[in-house]
Design goal:
alpha/beta; seven-stranded parallel beta sheet; 39% helix
């Protein structure tokens, strides 16, 4: 396939580019920082890859590069868990997803020939937080800022179906791999300072990086995949269990909790990303016969650390 990708230099994007390159696919990467993308993906290792500079929220000549691509993977979005949610920061988080997706859909509408599939990222924040409910793809949207962002994000992607382009939306959980959220936790545990965040009772719906990439590739290449899928492992855990397993694997204590008030002081409203969670199950992926390489947290963490 010839695949266009946004967010390619991010945690998931880099792994996806590596996989598709190994499969022999031709790739078109859209990046706000071409120099960084060229460092990540040198021509010697990625001969079938081209890089297009773009501004995600603005229309431009970059949109013409969508024409002739078989599929598009839209992973772009401003980081959610970095820094306080000021009014300006919240607007950036929303615009990068809502307007960024709108520009991709516009490019697909204008393309000739058009891509046959758009794989659009979303997040399990769609469901809102809960310590008691269990969510599947059939569950309604929740409340709060992140739920509103996800609804606006997905609504923009839905417009592509008017172009007879197949749409797959992946509501992704916390991705575990060499980097990302786990990359921030490991140094703390190795310094004997690890422990649950807040009460430790909040749900942690996770997925291994390899399984996310597998789901994206399946979504691109399997025409039976369509609609919304929860990109989460089938066995979510509580935050306290995650910390206990991680501490055991590292032979480090995991009893030192980080109190909620400390995170509130540091991150403000953004602290809800780690203090609140939801129990999300991948019903549709499993019904489609998708096999998780890492369905168990202990096996996933052992493979990583």
């Amino acid at each position: 396939m010839k695949v266009a990708i946004t967010g390619a230099t991010g945690f998931v994007g880099r792994a996806l580019v590596q996989r598709l390159n190994q499969q022999g696919d031709s790739l078109v990467l859209f990046s706000r920082d071409r120099a960084r993308a060229e460092r990540c993906f040198p021509r010697s290792a990625f001969p079938n890859l081209s890089i297009v500079g773009y501004e995600p929220t603005a229309a431009g000549d970059w949109q013409q590069a969508i024409a002739g691509c078989d599929g598009v993977v839209n992973l772009a979005g401003a980081p959610i868990a970095e820094g306080r949610w000021t009014t300006a920061r919240k607007q950036e988080i929303l615009d990068s997803r809502q307007l960024g997706t709108r520009r991709i859909v516009e490019a697909i509408a204008a393309a000739n020939p058009k891509p046959t599939v758009l794989v659009n990222s979303s997040a399990i924040g769609f469901y809102g937080p809960s310590e008691t409910a269990t969510f599947t793809e059939a569950s309604s949207a929740g409340q709060g800022f992140l739920a509103q962002v996800c609804q606006a994000w997905e609504a923009e992607a839905q417009a592509v179906t008017a172009q007879q382009t197949r749409l797959v939306i992946l509501r992704t959980g916390i991705v575990l791999g060499d980097g990302g959220a786990l990359g921030k936790m490991l140094p703390v545990f190795r310094a004997f300072a690890g422990g649950p965040l807040g009460t430790g009772q909040q749900w942690f719906s996770w997925i291994h990086l390899i399984d996310v990439v597998n789901l994206i590739e399946r979504s691109l290449k399997d025409p039976s995949f369509s609609g919304v899928y929860n990109a989460t492992a089938p066995k979510p855990v509580r935050m306290g269990e995650l910390c206990q397993v991680l501490g055991s694997l590292l032979n480090r204590p995991s009893w030192l909790p980080v109190p909620a008030f400390a995170l509130d002081l540091l991150l403000g409203e953004a602290a809800q990303v780690v203090l609140e969670g939801q129990c999300v199950l991948p019903d549709r992926a499993q019904q489609a016969g998708f096999q998780f390489d890492y369905g168990d947290l202990s096996a996933a963490l052992r493979a990583i650390v």
